[in-house]
Design brief:
The chain is of the alpha+beta class. Helix content is about 50%, strand content about 25%. It is flat and about 25 Å long.
Length: about 30
């Protein structure tokens, strides 16, 4: 599992959640 640090917290993300997060990040980078 991947971990994401948010505001000092470490979140262990679900694979499906990570796919959505990466897709959103890709959209933001295009803007």
């Amino acid at each position: 599992m991947k971990s994401l640090a948010v505001n000092g917290w470490t979140i262990y993300a679900h694979p499906m959640f990570w796919e959505k997060t990466e897709m959103l990040a890709a959209k933001v980078k295009r803007l």
